[in-house]
Amino acid sequence: MPMAFHPSGPDANGQCSAQRARWAALALDAAEPNAFYAPDMLTTALNHLDGNGRVQLIEAEANGNLIGLLPVVTHARHGRLPVACVGNWMHDHCFMGAALIRRGAEQAAWRAFLAQLDDAPWAPGFLHLQGIDAAGANAAAIAAICTEQHRDWREVHRYDRAMLHSDLGADSYWDTHVRAKKRKELRRLQKRLGDLGAVAQRLLTEASQLSEWVESFLALEAAGWKGKQGTALACSHADSAFFRAACASAFQAGRLHMLRLDLNGRPIAMLVNFRHGEGAFSFKIAIDEEFGRFSPGVLIEIANLHAVQGDPDIAWMDSCAAPGHPMIDSLWVERRTIVQYRIALRGAGTRRLQRSAAFAIANASEAIARKLKGRA
Question: Where does the record place the BioF2-like acetyltransferase domain (predicted)?
Fold first, then answer.
């Protein structure tokens, strides 16, 4: 059932607790891990990043059990087109858009999602999905249901991003996939850094240290180029509040994976990952640019490689990086293909005609743009 989330309403505490309990059970049996829609992260994002209360939560049920959860928002425009649509909620700090769907009920969940959107008077145009793994459970279920229902849909964009998914140990992975010249240069940088003092790699394990680590990360990121551009988490009260709360709730749930590289007790690089199921998602990295000549970002990624490959509970890690990222692409050789889908919505009467027209306009505009690009 679709619902709005009202964290400050009169029954907020009870509502939130009940929702989180249902989501937690679903997340434990999710067919496709997505740390950004796991209950701790999603609730935190709703509390701090959905200031206008725009997010609708689409729940799919079967026999009284929750089998799917998809947060959506409406958009007044689709890219450059003045065509309204509904899409999965991908806030600025969300790097995966896969719905939480229960293992074994993937198609039933997507059948329910689409039926509810078809019936929703507030859902305009079509469904635009971003951040979907082309080889994941959601993609497979969407393809099956759209084929079953003779529902128009199409892939509108795809790209590959770095992923760490290997049975090799960290040292073997490093020696196998990183060029010898690069390994030699990094060993030289590690030695030069060590000449300046005591270098230590640390993994957050103590709750008593959480606050200090979080504040250190915010300060480190803000002191660099992101702070100068105004895009660091600390530059926004909502973003920094979200980060603090997300780290705290993820730590409590055993899903926070946070590393730091210290020089004489001072952090010069920090990395934040969030876990879900057997996977993990690399969220943010911050470095002290004063030590940029030592490549602290690469050095902490080496520590991350050892931490991940040495943890039997982490089978893979998604870099969540932009395509063609020069640093992580040179360290991790596996790739994850991320796609966007445009899915037609149905309905009755005028609503069906309007949705059909919106879908057709978006497709025609895309086809024209591709032709023009091909001529350029």
Answer: 180-300
